[in-house]
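Case study 2.
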Amino acid sequence: MNRTVKYVLLAVALLSLSACRGGRVPDAKATGGAASANSADSAAYGKYDAPVVMRIGFKVPDSRLNTGDSNDNNPISRYLESLTNIKVIHSWEAKGEEPYTQKAQLAIDSNDLPDALVVDRDQLSKLIDSDMIADLTETYQKYGSELIKDMYDSTHGEALGDATRNGKLYGLPNVAINADSPSMLWVRQDWLDRLELPAPHTFEDIERIAKAFIERDPDGNGKRDTVGLSAYKNIVYGTKPHVNGLDAVFSAFHAFPTNWIKDSQGKIVYGSITPETKMALAKLADWYKRGLIDPDFALYKETQEPIISGKSGMFFGPWWMPFYPLSEAVALDTKAEWRAYAAPLDAAGKFVTHMAPVTDRYLVVRKGYEHPEAVVKLLNVFTRLERRRDPNQEAVKQLDDFSAQTGIQPRAYYPFDLLIDYTGAIEKHYSDMQQALHGKIDPDALDPDTRLLYNHWLTEEEQPKKNLEGWKAANSYKYGAAVLSSTAIEGVRSVFYGSTLHMKRNWPELQTLESETFLNIIVGDSPLSDFDLFVAKWKRMGGDIITKEVTQIVDSRHLNK
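Prediction:
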């Protein structure tokens, strides 16, 4: 998947930073804004008297520093060090999600952990089993900031519970934003208006619009060069949606591929092998056969290509699509207008979606590292910065300047790829902005995140598309978050995440079988009846054993509650 898309997902809760002018980033001591030692958060934000060294595994971002700085010595790292007196050294670096995961796994397998690193769910479990990481229960309670504790509390104990075993906290998890789970239908509204078509809600509406976008020259160039619906060659994302995933089509049939769900009898089943999934595949195969889905969707190197180039009239994606790829599409064609819709609805007229796990990454500390609290302090500091709560206004302003001048977001060079927010942050931002826009609350009373959004919204209203950074934030909320806030969503969450014994052995082969079967059925290379053959083969190749393992794990959790 395109790495840029993943990066944008991490970016959306904070939004684009203000474009200011300025010089280099100062040390926090020069600004006079460091947290007071007498404050309630003195333990959380207190600075070490003597330097503390922390060695970490670092995931290198796509953004490139062209200012003479390095991955571990740049304006962001220097600012964090000035606040904490923690010197972060990169024991190793890896660029991209998969290389990072592989390098983290190598460190685990060789029992050569850095002092701290971010791991996935399976890696966390192995580290606990191997007694390689520190118990952070007391460290978190003593040094965790009130801001971070509030954000974790917004999950009603689920996030921290996911990193806890036998009453001990072994990792500091990220927190998934609820709004990131649903996938909506994004439509070229200017095309819809030009062809005088009604807004889409049902499958039939989508089919009618796609046909019109293909046949009726919606871009007015006299050529038949537009496509109805874009798609993703791997069909679904399965947890957090991204560009062009067809998850919403499956959800409308109450099908949840790649998720472990309970069927009507209460039995745990793998969502990719259910009769509802077969029904969704039949619908998609029909759409492809009729030309409603981009005939070249499986051939694109990057799935967002037809959207950015202006060929596509509709695609599925989460609420933050204006950040990417729509910002690039609009930059190339400023006449393009995109709107989001809660579609397709199910047979009962409900908008159904799968929900992402509450957390899927964990910041862990090597057992024996003498300053585990330093890891928590760093997390406190960059989370406060990310959420616009940092009191060092002049220093933050200059970080904003650096971001505006270079295009590099500070989060790209935080020591850990671990963002935390309130689970309902997006809906809350939208609701508070609406209150301020309608004069029901004073804009000055908005929290810093929301006030920045509010300002972007007003600027975009006054000068549409004048500032593309502001356009991203304003349109994500005006159209994406607005739909989420006004739609009754029926969410279904997987009952199991992680791996079982046989899953580790058989899963890659089963995933290949699944993705090839789905794609072949949709594009017509295989008949729909092959779905039944796929299910039988999936079960024989280990699926039945894995299902038993998952069921036992889920049942044991309920017994232990």
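Confidence is low (pLDDT under 50) at residues 1-38.
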